[in-house]
Amino acid sequence: MMVDIVIVGNGPAGLSCAITARMRGLDALVVAPSANTSWLARTEHIENYPGLPSVSGVKILESFTAQALAMGANLCTGLVRQILPADKGFMLLVESDVVEAKTVVLAMGAARPQLLPGEEELVGMGVSYCATCDGMLYRGKRLGVLSASEEGLEETRFLRTLASSVDYYSLKKHDLSGLPKDVTAVDEKPESLSRTPEGLCVTTRQGTHCYDGIFIFRNAVSLGMLLPDLASDGGFIPVDRGMRTNVAGVFAAGDCTGKPLQVAKAVGEGNVAAVSAAEYIASLG
Ligand SMILES: Cc1cc2nc3c(=O)[nH]c(=O)nc-3n(C[C@H](O)[C@H](O)[C@H](O)COP(=O)(O)OP(=O)(O)OC[C@H]3O[C@@H](n4cnc5c(N)ncnc54)[C@H](O)[C@@H]3O)c2cc1C
Questions:
Q1: Could you give the residue ranges of the DSSP H alpha helices within 86-177?
Q2: Residue 137 is part of a domain; what is its CATH number?
Q3: Does residue 280 share a domain with residue 201?
Q4: From the CB of 270, is ligand 1 less than 6 Å away?
């Protein structure tokens, strides 16, 4: 399926972009991990959004979402793990599914995952973020899973059906009651990753544990892994006044483009990104 515009993120920037994209007659797909992952959801009262004095973050998000859906935008649950240029646009890896789009709008907010020392160098060389994509490579092997939330439990259950053993490390505190009984919860905090003659190793304060493969599950992806050709500056994405990034057909809006980190700015940028995406699609002929 090829859509006109895939919007990465369901905060104010992404939802505003979806509303204007629909106004311009584009089919718009908004992808995000789950309903209330936007920063805004953590805000009790917003006092500086015009027209809605003292509104809660959840309320404003519900209202934006309802409006986007009513306009005909589609929502899809999942994390966009990678964006690859393709013949007629882009291919996006959403968890283990592929979505094709003519244009992409990045509206992922400002939160970035803190990578472990050694992690980036080992991606694709034994370190993976996708159980469905790479799990088969580890049939009968020893695996380490590093997870930041309960969402890693489901992936771990699948990996346990393939691997000979699975050790589970919590990157952040979360409920482990759903962990399969034959998976070992290691109560140590991973500090770095490395490759040694014993395999791929997780180093903690208490020691080093080696595996054949390591899977990492977090609710965010670093910019460098999402789209390797994308320029970034101090963790933010440089854009021009049309919210165009350095990659043709890729736009960015909201907190991910830099300060001020404010709802009104995110909404305005989402609007501009949609207009620019529509112009870009028209220019493709
Ligand atoms: C406590 C607090 C109080 C605040 N108070 C105010 C205030 O009073 N006034 C004000 O104007 N602003 C306030 N802000 C800031 C405001 O919340 C942000 O500026 C705004 O939410 C930015 O919108 P956004 O759409 O750019 O990003 P976000 O709202 O952060 O949304 C980004 C979305 O993208 C998703 N995402 C990230 N990576 C991926 C990926 N790889 N694939 C799919 N989805 C992804 C995230 O899960 C998230 O849902 C406050 C923020 C906080 C935390």
A1: 119-122, 131-134, 151-160
A2: 3.50.50.60
A3: no
A4: no
- Choosing from 192, 217, 242, the residue where a domain stops is 217
* Any atom of ligand 1 within 6 Å of the Cβ of 94: no
> Using only C-alpha atoms, what is the Rg of the chain?
20
Instruction: Name the residue among 127, 103, 148 with its Cα closest to residue 242.
Output: 103
- For residue range 48-72, list pLDDT tens digits in order: 999 998 899 999 999 999 999 999 9
Domain-ending residue, one of 173, 191, 217: 217
33 CB under 6 A from ligand 1? yes
Q: Using one digit for the tens of pLDDT, what is the confidence trace for 181-198? A: 999 999 999 999 999 999
What is the domain extent for residue 20?
2-112+222-284
User: 221 CA to middle of ligand 1, Å?
Assistant: 15
- The structure's pTM equals 0.89
Average pLDDT for residues 139-154, to the nearest whole number? Answer: 94
> Ligand 1: distance of its center to the CA of 262 in Å?
8
Asked whether the predicted pLDDT for residue 35 surpasses 80, the reply is no
pLDDT of the residue at 224: 84
Ramachandran assignment for 199, one of left (phi > 0), alpha (psi -120 to 50 degrees), beta (any other): left
Distance 110 CA to ligand 1 centre (A): 7
Predicted confidence at residue 262, as pLDDT, reads: 96
Under 8 Å between Cβ of 189 and 214: no
Check whether residue 164 and residue 179 sit in a common domain: yes
Q: Are residues 96 and 191 in the same domain?
A: no
| Ligand 1 atom nearest to 253, measured from its CA | 26
Q: How far is the CA of 256 from the centre of ligand 1 (A)?
A: 9
Q: How many domains would you assign to the chain? A: 2
- Is 124 in the same domain as 165? yes
Quick one: which atom of ligand 1 is closest to the CA of 80? Answer: 42
Q: State whether residue 254 is helix, strand or coil.
A: helix
